[in-house]
Amino acid sequence: MAGVGRRRFLGYVLAASTLTVAAQVGEAGEAAAAVPSLPEPADLYDLNDMLTDAALPTSGLITVQVHEDGTASLALPRAEVGQGVTTSSAMLVAEELELPLEKVRVTLADARPELLFNQLTGGSNTTVSTFTPIRVAAAVARGRLLAAAAGLLGVPLAGLVAKAGVVGAPGGRSVTYGELAVRAASGVDVAVSVALKERAQFTVIGTPRGRADALAAVTGRKQFAMDVKVPGALPVMLCRPPTINGTVRAVRNADAVRAMPGVTDVAVVPTGVAVRARTFGQCIDAVRALQVDWGPGTEDGASDESVLKELRAAELPLVVPPLPLLTKAVDARFTFHFASNSALETNCAVADVRADRAEVWASLKSPIVAQEKIAARLGLPPTAVTVHVTEGGGSFGRKLFHDAALEAAEVSRAMGKPVRLMWHRTDDFRQGRTHPMATSRVRATYSLGQVLSCEQRHTSVATDFGHGLGEIITAMAAKLPVADLAFSETMFALTQQTPYDFGVTTQLLSEVDKGFNTGSMRGIYSPNVRTAQELVVDRLAAGTGSDPYTFRRRFLKEDRARAVLDKVAELGDWGRTMAAGTAQGIALHPEYHSVVAVLAEIDCRPQTTGRTVPDAYTGPRVTKVVCAVDVGLAVNPRGLEAQMQGGIMDGIALALSSGLHLQDGHFLEGSWDNYFYTRQWNTPPELQVVVMPPTTGSPGGAGELAVAAAMAAVACAYGRATGTMPTVFPVNHGGPLGFEPLPTVPPVPQSPTDGRTRAY
Amino acid sequence: MPEHTFILNGERVTVDIEDDVRLLWVLRDVLGVTGPKYGCGLGVCQACTSHLNGRAFTPCCVPVGELAPGDEVTTIEGLPATVGAELHPMQEAWLEFDVAQCGYCQPGQIMAAVAKVRQAREAGREIGEADLDEIRNICRCGTYHRIREAITAAAKRY
Ligand code: FES
Ligand code: FES
Asked: Has the keyword Ion transport been applied to this entry (chain B) (predicted)?
């Protein structure tokens, strides 16, 4: 019965002392479904497909080991930055191996150069690309264990049943996986073909599970990069320039600073002046004491206004020809300010660089690129650089890059000592990467209740893709449906979709200004692009005298999208009567074979916007959010729900409160009381996430999904509550600053001393 | 170098370090107690939140020289012992609601939550929405909603 008529997959039993099985990373992308009427490129073949297909030609293997203590382990070639992939990957192993989930250990693999494209955590791609290989490896292991048990117990294979880590034989005899682990091992590599469980047989996949690292997290035992104990790796912090990417001309008092308490070394590196000390507190003292002559940066004098001018000048023209009589148009232009993708864990890394080798510890989503770049900078062969991937304290785009790892390697080499390098929070906001400022022009035409065209011109400060995606695009260029586009334009074409049938639809990107340190931020373009589009959809609905929900419903291309929209409208009681100054907004977002809808209710009444919380921005409050998500198949619905909740908090912040102000070549924000990410006082008191039952049967992306839909729904709600469509994001950007900017010299503030009096 | 003695998670410790070094660095860099996290060093993010004589505080804002030998510092590592259990009920609730995402903010969140519940009780009430709104701890992964659920549930159990 096993496998009759079912697709079979190839796995391997590897030569090892205990049972070790493997499967090739990556899976052939499913043949794309035909989409009627001039689909956009991302409808057919999106970023996720590209990342999955990029995995195919490599020889890299995902390996599962079964140990004598009855546990199984998997070294996942991905980063865990909070998104829950260690848990969902453990579930895949548990499912096919028939082992209790708590007996599966998932660790993060070091950089493995032979994996090429296959060690990049991005584009919400992890579960999509590892769903099959991990299960194949586990299924091979189960088969081997059963065969070994048959030999040991002297019974035919057909009578054996593997369950909960034990193989049982007729008559009640049994043997545990632990007892079989060595016996099932192979002396040579063998290829094996296996069939996987059908969806109806799943007992682990699709069931809600708590995070594998939850206990470690709540006890403080979870180890992040700065908690890794490397002998002699003393704290290092940098004195950074007052303007973006400013340069060091001279250090006037290096000797005096070297003599400060705790300080062991001072060294100049390309990004600033590094100080190594016994504690980070003493690093901060030294950074503040350094007198440095700074050279120019890459954006000296730049401001929000000057960048906006550049963007307006670079906007591509709209192409729809003059309109027939009776046709109406909605024409809108939106501005999205710089936003910080700083995680709570600031940029950080441990490095120990010797003459002939280097070792680095950091949370990296693209560790192979980090390894190559660090090796090149140090003048070492890549094989001499070991890169350990640690658990990450959030990413939001930051960990695609290796800024701190490279910097730590340079400092370690300059000082000739191991270092534990961490960015100060203020630096992380001011010199760290940002989501680029952008404008989006949208023009849609309609006549007699039909939308005839929808054109969007997105103009953005350049996004840096120098973290591996660029290399993938180069290698995959030939098979992409968007030949001859620049990297960024390819990324745009691969990620942007219009979920509505709006006639002639075009979405184009142009970029300006490469002087900023940028990156994606839980989504590359989608939150901004789709928010602009969904606001225009509300205008179209109003223009045609329709309700925003029914209007969307009517024009949606896909049934899956309609289903999530219906779900939030129903659960969120769409259209209920609300007080003046409060309103509902509804939006949806498809990406990476998944789709999510969000209904948000907002309160913009003066008594709410006028709330006072010390050192905080309050503003409007999103009072309720209902979210419905269809990812095709949710491996861990509970983890998915958490991802949606997090994305919703991001969307609220991006719409209402969290932006950077650029002035005189630097960002004004320098702490979490300046950069207004969502806080408890702006958290929706009511929040409901519904995970839809499986639809496609294979998992789509989830990590970035909710941000765009939540941002758009909140923006739409804000427009309906205030009667004015918002066109600048975050909406508070033009208002009073809300904080006193920290000085830029010295670059970091001193820690307060009043902690005792503020105890509660 | 000046010596400083205080009680850390129930045990007397003595460190040799300059008076003005903030306690967070003494804990993390000198004593190797890494549960309290750095998120700002400014008393803003609250990631380092621990307890001083039973009250929540941010050790990044307390010079070690201000500690007296009798001062009791409790970090997340020492929280279970304050109730004589494997885990504090607040930690249990955190597991039940699967609060953590990346987990970086969570030691501070839990320490703040315990203090918030106690503070409300001292004011003669159980913790409510207004109290939850006051919690300043940043969670950049956006686990705020589950934090609220976990605190509310835990407060009913101890
Ligand atoms: S690190 Fe102490 S409050 Fe942020
Ligand atoms: S769980 Fe990541 S910052 Fe809170």
From this structure: no
Distance CA A187, CA B46 (A): 54
SS3 label, residue A98: coil
Report the 10 Å Cβ neighbour count for A291. 15
Comparing A369 with A649, the larger pLDDT belongs to A649
**Rounded Cα distance, A186 and A13, in Å:** 7
Give the start-to-end residue ranges of the domains of chain A: 8-30+62-218, 225-298+347-422, 304-340+433-729
CB-based contact, A357 to chain B, within 8 Å: no
Q: Note which residues in 611-670 of chain A have CB less than 8 A from chain B.
A: 613, 615, 638, 642, 645-650
* pLDDT tens digits along A72-98: 999 888 888 888 889 999 999 999 999
Tell me whether the omega of the peptide bond preceding residue A746 falls within 30 degrees of 0, making it cis: yes
| Separation of alpha carbons A283 and A344, rounded Å | 20
Amino acid at A21: V
Tokens representing A495?
Answer: 């990620």
Q: Is the CB of B120 under 6 A from ligand 2?
A: no
pLDDT tier, A49 (very low <50, low <70, confident <90, very high otherwise): low
- Tokens describing residue B72: 């009791």
Tens-digit pLDDT profile for residues B16-65? 999 999 999 999 999 999 999 999 999 999 999 999 999 999 999 999 99
> Which residues sit with their C-beta closer than 6 Å to ligand 1?
B 24, 38-48, 58, 60
Annotation: CATH topology of A304-340+433-729: Aldehyde Oxidoreductase; domain 4 (3.30.365)
Tell me what pLDDT residue B1 has: 81
Hey, which bits of B59-126 come out as E strands? Answer: 72-74
Q: Which CATH code, of 3.40.50.2020, 3.20.20.70, 3.10.20.30, 3.30.1490.100, is assigned to B3-80?
A: 3.10.20.30
Given CB atoms, is A486 within the 8 Å cutoff of chain B? no
Euclidean distance between CA atoms A238 and A272, whole angstroms? 6
Domain A225-298+347-422, second-level architecture: 2-Layer Sandwich (3.30)
A123-182 pLDDT, tens digit per residue, is 667 777 788 889 999 999 999 999 999 999 999 999 999 999 999 999 899 999 999 999
Instruction: Give the CATH number of domain A8-30+62-218.
Output: 3.30.365.10
ipTM of the modeled complex: 0.98
Cβ atoms of residues B140 and B40 within 8 Å: no
Phi, psi dihedral angles at A619 (to 5 degrees): 70, -160
